[in-house]
Amino acid sequence: MKKLYIPFLFLFVLIVSACGNNETVNEDNAIDTEKETFTYQSETGPIEVPTNPQRIISLTNGPNALALNANIIGIDEWTNMNPLFQERLEGVEVVSEDNLEKIIELEPDLIIAGSHMNNIDKLNEIAPTVVYTWGKLDYLTQQVEIGKLLNKEMEAKEWVKDFQERAESTGEAIRAKIGEDATVSVIESGDKEFYVFGNNYARGTEILYQAMELKMPDKVKELALESGIYTFSSEMLPELAGDYVILSKNPDGDNSFFETDLWKNISAVKNNHVFEINTKASTYSDPITLEYLLVFFGKSFLNN
User: Fold this and answer.
1) Which domains does the chain carry?
2) pTM for this prediction
């Protein structure tokens, strides 16, 4: 019996040892998987990027990446100034494409940049750099594209579908209340001039005109639809203001004009059809901004 027992004992030890080695191999494979890259098809061609980037510098499209809970360590100054993103950007460094030394110090594993920016080649030497051209993709496709880059495509697509459904539903309710023919203008006040926007220039224009299908005044359509933005003097306000006005207003700017008779005599003002948004919080078309403005528009139109 003892002679038979020893070989079996030896065999058992070998099996246990093999299992232990397999566990080690599996752990090694798991570590290797975490370090894997994949080929992302960017607008400038294929580029190898981390599957799960841990140190992202976002010189553009930062809000899109923030909406997907990306691990951002560096952000552009304009995104950093936006009040909607303050909590999410706590501890994140402000950087630009011209400050290469600071970017090197941050040791990024992925950089997101705009095609118009300087030093793209040098940025690529620091880390894989994916560039986007502003306006080349529509606002929803852009979010899906960032999702692909960050290995979160499904999450991005699910948000797009859900957002479209909610925005369309809210738009139907708004049109039912204000009338199908009621017009809406999106106007922004500058230091010495005003701007009116088409249907794809942030400030909620994508929601109002594309998703909700609200009407744009004919004069605005003529001047701003193709270009996206039209600059005008205050004398043109009565011509460009629709039945409802979304006023993008800088809280730190000179807003004395809004105390003048010209402003007070505009039909939308007299009818209490002006809804103010903070310019600083509305210059992007990312999910965080869109969600904020969708709620604001719903409350403003439907509770007015």
Assistant:
1) 37-151 (3.40.50.1980), 173-303 (3.40.50.1980)
2) 0.87
